[in-house]
Amino acid sequence: MSSYFEYRGQKVHKYIVYSLILNAVLISVLYLDAEGITVSVLRGVISFIFLTFVPGFLIGKILRLDKQGFLEFLLYSIGLSLMAIMITGFLLNISLPIIGIHRPISEFFILSALSSLTVVLCLICHHYDNDFSNQVSFSYTRSHIKMLLLISLLPILAVIATFTMNYYETNILLYILLILVSLVIALVTVKNIFPEWIYPYLVFIMALSLLFHNSLISNYVWGWDVQQEYYVSKLVVDSGFWNSSIPTNVNAMLSIVILGPVYSIISGLSMEWVFKIIYQFFFALVPIVMYLVFKKLTNPKVAVLSVIFFITTLIFYKEMIQLCRQEIAELFLTLLLLLLLNNNLPGRTWGILFSVFSCGIIISHYGLTYMVIGLIALSYVLFTFINLVARYINTDKVIIPVTPIRLNFLHICIFIFIALSWYIAITSSTAFYSVSSVIYQVISSMFTESLNPTASQGLAIIQKVPVSQMHLLYTYIYYFNQVCIVLGLLYLSYKTFARKNMYNYSIMQLIMCGVAVMVLVGSIVLPYFASALNTTRIYHIMQFFVSPVYIIGFIFALESIPKVYARIVKSPFRSNLSFTYGIISLFLCVYLLFNSGVIFQILNDHPSSMALGGVPDYPLYNDLELESANWMTDPTIYSGYIPVYSDYYRSLLISGKNGRWDYTSGGITSYNWSDANIYVLSLNQSGTYYTYLGSYNINKQLVYIDPYPQHRIKNLIYTSLNNLALINEIYDNGGSVIYYNI
């Protein structure tokens, strides 16, 4: 028996009352904590709710965004909250030092500013007295509620599974988690199990579970870029001030130097756990926004399968958790894409949101900003050209539909102007020079090194020889995916121009998909293009545009086989989309088991999962290594004038503790040590220096070094500890050793 649920939203005065109550509770909790009455869990929960929802909800009510529906209103509000926090912190940082306050990013001033902002927004809401209440309604059965509760346990299982892996080194619960998520994917299109109204929550839960199963491994941040992010954000937390004069790209990203520190200071969580938990929550919202975008372009089934394809790709839950700034930027990107499809908002409101979300991308991640600008600008140029052609060659036989869009040339110019202004002013032009040098390098070598695997990272990946038959099958799965993307683009192009399209793609959206495919091809053909951002990251970004195209191509491929057979035997063809969706769901289920490393781990076939313990050496650190790194980077122990050498992975740990990795010079330049440098070990270092070794180095007697540090391209190899001159041991805690070579 089915029941009916209806929610009519809240009146303005209730939003105001709830906001003020939350604000008062947060102030009370922080006061109790300051008085020594520890309420850490309550503080974390209240501060998260207040920071994440209150500013955005009030701004959303002022802009009357609740008319767009509850889910869109919620997502827009979260984006507005994050922007409000970053802008507030930025203004505090530049204004308070003028009047002699040297720690503007501290608990008192942040809380005072956000509380004042809340009161002002409440007054504006009361003045407008906008009492429109959005409505949510759907029918459900008791089995639906049971299933909803069961899938809600997946993130909890992820937390427990990573805990047992961290402290007991058992991966059984992680296996169970990944298999359960795969089972959910296999059944996702079965209507009796998962109704369409549950899809947004379903993709959020699956995404959060997959993210947690990697991010919560170890008690410290692990990976590459996240070490830089941790250093600059921790510097802000410790000093109470963002030093914008540090000329690095990462230091100019407010998503790292303002947003993270504000959550850390107000919630009481360390920056490690802000990155591991809070940032992953925000990134798990991205699939929900993508579902809404894809649903407007296709239908609920294609939309949910498209999102599943996106979140089950390895890059989403392994590589992206090492790029916290890009996680926030991608949330703003998806909100911008959702906005571009919205034709119901008033022009002024639409323009405000476009500016806000564009700025959100700009101050969150420079690489994604340039990629989005290039993609949108090129798509707009091609769209304008097609419109011009349509005016002259449109005949009764050739029909080129001209679709109006809200995005215009002025919007793109504003986007570009804000981006260049921010990067030139704040990063001392380092972000601008970075993209300029990449463009110059690509153009200068285009005709001499095209399709050269030593210059093309994408081509090198394609030509990499699989280590086993199962890994070869895994490679073929990725090849098949690319074929489906091309098939989907061709199918959509034909149907759109022939006005036979069963989907809702306009010419502009189709062009953006085409440009995304061109970028993927460019990452293979163009020298040094893919390596500038990393091939896998480019593929991940392009999935925002081509994921539905992939599913459409998959559907076309599956239905073409029985259609051709029907023509051969001259029998009528009957499309069975439910069966087709089921096949795709099963494929994506297997796709996750490959990507997550479950299959390789079970077969012991060159395991690839760090979370499952299949990768012996990785930038992943235990408590003993953290203890020694803290000792090594304590300025009261070490003045910083002597170089520190470590192998490649352990040098990342030291950099996250006290310095910034400088790829151009091969070392890490520290800003709290006057002359400190941290380098990757080679076979010929000399003079006076420290050598830092971690647990893997000690247990395996191996180090991952760069034998030719003078070369521009690193050629990292493993070599025996016996090949290094290690003398004068000055520290040993059983899991890490430090030597002082004279």
From TrEMBL:
The keyword Transmembrane applies. It comes from the Archaea. Keywords: Membrane, Transmembrane, Transmembrane helix. The chain crosses the membrane at residues 12-32, 44-63, 75-96, 108-126, 147-166, 172-194, 201-222, 242-266, 273-294, 300-317, 329-345, 351-368, 375-393, 405-424, 476-494, 506-526, 538-558, 579-603. The keyword Transmembrane applies. It holds the Pfam family DUF2206. This is DUF2206 domain-containing protein. It comes from Methanocella arvoryzae (strain DSM 22066 / NBRC 105507 / MRE50).
